[in-house]
Every structure is written in structure tokens, then in C-alpha cells.
Design brief:
Elements lengths: L1 E6 L19 E2 L2 E2 H10 L5 E6 L3 H8 L2 E2 L2 E7 L5 H9 L10 E5 L2 E3 L3 H6 L7 E8 L7 E4 L5 E5 L8 E10 L15 H4 L7 E6 L3 E3 L3 H9 L7
Parallel strand pairs: 1-4, 1-7, 4-6, 9-13
Antiparallel strand pairs: 2-3, 5-6, 7-12, 8-14, 9-12, 10-11
């Protein structure tokens, strides 16, 4: 089992907050976002985590180093902005077990979703599985369209409707075969250039706590309610 955390973005939505510090190092309660994520990854028994770094990579290295408890930290540093898809493609060159599944986390997600349970629903013959997180207001998100067998059929663009729904939770487990969908170019989006072409992707439906701390108001909410993520 491999693990990748995407943490190389410019974090422009957070403004001055992340001009000098990567958002994955931002404190939320007694821990950083990185620590919250690593605690969940550790429960999978993963021994190495690849950080897909770019913006402020040197600062990230100084803060994190090459070990987190018993887990080795490997850096896949981008020399230019690669987009979400390009960052994943680049990071997968650094994993140590290419014939095994890889869990991939956006570096601004906090959730109590059970990764081990998610792993149980990964079909070996599929391309992978995506976290479908339930939110009370999908207005600022795109939603997932899937059938009764939890097979992903489409991503619906955000429509501004204030309603409950399941969104792309920013956490994926890909089987090795997923790489066949990557385009040849270095720079591309996983959401727009890859997912529409993937044939066999499942959804892991979760109503557990979830938040993207990539905007100031959500970061503030997470800091005020950090105990939610201890559950």
C-alpha cells in the first residue's frame, strides 16, 4: 500500500495566511493538518508517504523532515506547477510499491471517514474508489452521480443549489491500472482531464465529518471545532 499527499499548491484562496507557510502545516487545534492526515494514514499500516510538494517545499521539509513517527517521508518536488493530475502522475514515480494500491489525499482535507473501511470496498479489478462525502450545502461544490452499486457515472459541476449532497471528498484509492488514463503531457487536471475518461471508478459514500480548509471561513470553522475530527 502506498500513500501520497498533494501539498504543492499555491493556496491562493487563503491569501496572506499561506504566503510563508504551506497550508498542510497550518495548525488546527493541537495538531497541524499534516498531523491529522498522517494519523489516519498510519492506521492503514503504510510505511512511506510521498509528499507532492512545490510551493514552499523547503519550508515543508524543514518542518516535517524525513520521518513522521515510524513512517518515512519521501518528497516529490515539482519544479513547476503541474496541476492536480500532473502532481499525482509525478508523485507516483516516487512510490516504492507500484504494483499495490495508492491512497491519495488532497492536503487540505480533514475528515473522520474510515480509510480502512474504504479500502475494504476497493475492488481489485476496478480503477479505484473515491471518497463521496456528504455535506449539508453543496452550493460551492460539484456533486457525484453514481448508481445503486456505487459505480461513478459522472461529476456534476456546482450549480449553486443549497441542498444536501455527496461531493468529491478529495481522497482517492487508485489501483495500479489507473495510470493508463494519464495523458502524456506533464501538466493536467485530475478532475477535468482524467476522471471523465475513467471507466471503472467506485464511490465510497460517507456521512462522517469532512471539511476542506482551503478557504479562510472553513479553516476558522475547523479551528473552532477541531474536536470534531478526534472522533
Amino acid at each position: 500500500m502506498n500513500a501520497v499527499i498533494l501539498c504543492g499548491g499555491l493556496s491562493t484562496r487563503l491569501g496572506d495566511i499561506t504566503k510563508t507557510i504551506p497550508k498542510i502545516i497550518l495548525p488546527v487545534g493541537p495538531k497541524t493538518v499534516f498531523d491529522w492526515q498522517m494519523e489516519k494514514i498510519q492506521k492503514l499500516g503504510v510505511k512511506e508517504v510521498v509528499l507532492a510538494a512545490g510551493h514552499l517545499a523547503e519550508f515543508l521539509y524543514e518542518q516535517v523532515g524525513t520521518k513522521w513517527q515510524d513512517i518515512e517521508i519521501i518528497y516529490a518536488i515539482e519544479d513547476k506547477r503541474l496541476g492536480t493530475g500532473g502532481a499525482i502522475k509525478h508523485a507516483l514515480e516516487y512510490i516504492l510499491h507500484p504494483d499495490e494500491p495508492t491512497i491519495i489525499l488532497n492536503g487540505d482535507i480533514l475528515t473522520t471517514a474510515d480509510f480502512n473501511d474504504m479500502m475494504k470496498y476497493l475492488r481489485s479489478e476496478s480503477d479505484g474508489i473515491i471518497l463521496g462525502s456528504k455535506v449539508e450545502d453543496v452550493a460551492s461544490y460539484g456533486t457525484l452521480i453514481y448508481n445503486n452499486q456505487y459505480h461513478l457515472e459522472a461529476f456534476k459541476e456546482k450549480e449553486g443549489k443549497h441542498e444536501v449532497g455527496f461531493i468529491n471528498g478529495g481522497i482517492y484509492i487508485f489501483n495500479p491500472r489507473f495510470k493508463k488514463y494519464f495523458p502524456e503531457q506533464q501538466v493536467f487536471s485530475i478532475e477535468y482531464d482524467v476522471f471523465p475518461n475513467v471507466k471503472d471508478l467506485d464511490v465510497y459514500e460517507s456521512d462522517r465529518a469532512w471539511i476542506d480548509v482551503g478557504v479562510p471561513e472553513r479553516l476558522e470553522w475547523a479551528r473552532e471545532n477541531w474536536e470534531t475530527f478526534e472522533r
